[in-house]
Amino acid sequence: MTTTTIPNFTLNNGVQIPVIGFGVFQTPPAETTAAVLTALETGYRHIDTAAAYGNERGVGEAVRRSGLARKDVFIETKVWVTDYGHDETLRAFDKAAAKLGIETIDLLILHQPHIGDFARTIAAYRALERLLADGRVRAIGVSNFTPTILARFLPEVAIVPAVNQIELHPYFTQLASVKANADAGILTQAWSPIGGITHYYGSEATSTFTDKTLVEIGQRHGKSPAQIMLRWHIQQGRQVIPKSTRAARIAENFAIFDFALSAEELASIDALDKGVRGGPDPDQPQPQFLDYKIPEA
């Protein structure tokens, strides 16, 4: 077990969240427990999952097997759009808590904006507000909310989200979203923080992992491009949730607390932005999201 002390960010309700977490997006359920156990043994203390990933049970099993006290592991999960609506979202909490095998979820967020039925999005978030008031969750938030969506959303709710989890990496820096989050007191949480989604741009696309600027900065510090990208996020105040199922990569992504990037290096990474989104556009309706129903616990 590592002795590295992980710095925290303080959410807008005073709750502390580690600056780096471990993601399990696309991790097969059969591999989830082993990957999360490896992450916890490495030193990660925040696990990010989602109802739609289908692997909440594996996350809960790993936390139980780890020997760590429940209070020492920050667990985040997400409500899928087919469970939006006030009562439906309360039920979604019950399903997630049962699969995770826990009574209190540290951070519960809405996975996507439901543009086609925004009233259900608001109703779902009001259910999160109730769960927060009841002490069943410690913090609440959203994911994939653009500045346009936030401007529509915030006047309708009582509690400002603690986090907004968005696609963010050197090729898609989302400056407007980061500013909108900061202006509202919302922590930006980066999914695909090392640009793994850039592999889906096509065979002609440049991968962040071979980007000349990132490679050169890494060589100066004796670090990999992935480590450089994670450090770039954290130094600029963004929480990150890299994912892997390989022990060596899990450890590599965590080894980012023994160096610092200069202002010039941060600026040179900022300049890599291509303005190209890899995931779905949150401002557009995504009817395919409604095809997936979350199973009962």
Write a short abstract of this structure.
With 297 residues, the chain is α/β, with parallel strands linked by helices.
Protein model, in words:
This protein is α/β, with parallel strands linked by helices and 297 residues long. The chain has a domain at 18-201 and 238-245: NADP-dependent oxidoreductase domain (TIM Barrel). It has ten helices and ten strands. The strands form two sheets. The chain has an eight-stranded parallel β-sheet. The protein has a two-stranded antiparallel ribbon with strand order 1-2. α5 links the parallel β7 and β8. α2 (56-66) crosses α3. The chain is globular, with a radius of gyration of 18 Å. The protein starts with 7 loop residues before the first strand and ends in a 27-residue tail after the last helix. The relative contact order is 0.15. The mean pLDDT is 95.
Secondary structure layout:
Elements: E1 8-10, E2 16-18, E3 22-23, H1 29-42, E4 46-48, H2 56-66, E5 74-79, H3 86-100, E6 105-110, H4 118-133, E7 137-143, H5 147-153, E8 163-167, H6 175-184, E9 187-191, H7 212-221, H8 225-235, E10 239-240, H9 247-254, H10 263-270
Parallel strand pairs: 3-4, 4-5, 5-6, 6-7, 7-8, 8-9, 9-10
Antiparallel strand pairs: 1-2
Helix pairs in contact: 1-2, 1-9, 2-3, 3-4, 7-8
Query: Given this structure, which CATH class of the domain at 18-201 and 238-245 is correct?
Result: Alpha Beta
Q: What radius of gyration results from the CA coordinates?
A: 18 Å
* N-C termini distance: 32 Å
Give the count of helical stretches: 10
Helix content range of the residues, please? 25-40%
Number of strands: 10
Strand line-up of the largest beta sheet: 3-4-5-6-7-8-9-10
CATH architecture heading of the domain at 18-201 and 238-245:
Alpha-Beta Barrel
Shape: globular
- Tell me what portion of residues adopts beta-strand conformation: 5-15%
**Helix/strand/pairing category:** alpha/beta
Mean pLDDT: 95
Question: Which fold name corresponds to the CATH topology of the domain at 18-201 and 238-245?
Answer: TIM Barrel
Annotated CATH homologous superfamily of the domain at 18-201 and 238-245: NADP-dependent oxidoreductase domain
User: Largest sheet at a glance?
Assistant: 8 strands, parallel
Q: What order do the SSEs take from the amino end to the carboxyl end, as H and E? A: EEEHEHEHEHEHEHEHHEHH
